[in-house]
Amino acid sequence: MTVHLDIQRFNPETDRESHVKRYTLDVEPTDRVLDALTTINRNIDGTLTFRRSCAHGVCGSDAMIINGKEALACKTLIQDVAESDGATIRIEPARHMEVQRDLMVKQDTFFGNYRAVKPYFIPDETKPAPEKEYVQSIDERSVFDDPTKCILCGACYSACPVIDRNPNFIGPAAIVQAARFVFDSREKGLEARLDILDRPDGVWACENHFECTRVCPRDIKVTKMINFTKREIKKLREARGEQTNDGGAAT
Ligand code: SF4
Ligand code: FES
């Protein structure tokens, strides 16, 4: 089948504004959008710039907006976004991150927020250290199974309507990554991350729009994890006789 790809282009060295460039090519319906982009890059226009690495939905490099919705180009089949021969597919860079070039965005803030939640194991020193490995039951492990699937693609960060108004919001992905450790029974958990999560631009900025959950290519229940984290913060603050630092959002 023949498809038109309308791709948003921007070269910071020559362009003052982004513009849309159309590429027309023959593809198989079962090709992926990433295959089409690669064909353009290799055979039609070598200046087209985008990130990709694994090409199998693992590395999270190629999140972009395809026909208005965040998706991984390597996990999106042409037949799912092009209804018929001659269809047009619109491709834009992910939102809320400055465009570096074409479909490639700067991820400094996104990964800065990720680092801020301390996404690594911090042992709970109040419990005796095990002689061998830390033991965890299947039930304890299952509590944080969902957030372990996150590939840091940034689709949720791009789709989040709160970030339109509040670019300081830490964002859904960082909270999912924090939840991976907050709910780990072997971990120091929330206490080690309370300052960054319990603040107006932390979990409390989330307004439950569910856009993050809708676009997550790993089917993580992102909004649910954010609400679990809010609940955990309230529990901890109550146990300490303290108020949450929600800026009025939770009242
Ligand atoms: S939560 Fe989902 S959409 Fe967000 S970064 Fe992780 S994998 Fe991507
Ligand atoms: S290229 Fe790795 S997730 Fe798509």
The radius of gyration over CA amounts to: 21 Å
CATH architecture tag of the largest domain: Orthogonal Bundle
Succession of helices and strands: EEHEEHEEEHHHHHHHH
Quote the CATH topology of the largest domain.
Fumarate Reductase Iron-sulfur Protein, Chain B, domain 2
Q: Would you identify the regions where 5 or more consecutive residues have pLDDT less than 50?
A: none
Shape: elongated
Largest sheet: 5 strands, mixed
Number of domains: 2
Query: Which molecules are bound besides the chains?
Result: iron/sulfur cluster, FE2/S2 (inorganic) cluster
Head-to-tail CA distance between termini: 55 Å
- Strand-pairing-aware structural class: alpha+beta
Q: Say how many strands there are.
A: 7
The mean pLDDT is: 96
What is the CATH class name of the largest domain?
Answer: Mainly Alpha
The number of helices is 10
In words, what does this structure look like?
The chain is an alpha+beta fold and 251 residues long. Helix content is 31%, strand content 14%. It has 10 helices and 7 strands. The protein has helices at residues 33-44, 78-81, 108-116, 138-142, 155-159, 161-165, 172-182, 194-197, 211-215, 222-239; strands at residues 2-9, 19-26, 63-66, 69-72, 88-92, 99-101, 104-105. The strands form 2 sheets. The chain has a 5-stranded mixed β-sheet. A hairpin with a 2-residue loop joins strand 6 (99-101) and strand 7 (104-105). The longest helix has 18 residues, at 222-239. The chain is elongated, with a radius of gyration of 21 Å. The mean pLDDT is 96. Bound molecules: iron/sulfur cluster (SF4) and FE2/S2 (inorganic) cluster. Iron/sulfur cluster binds next to helix 5 and helix 7.
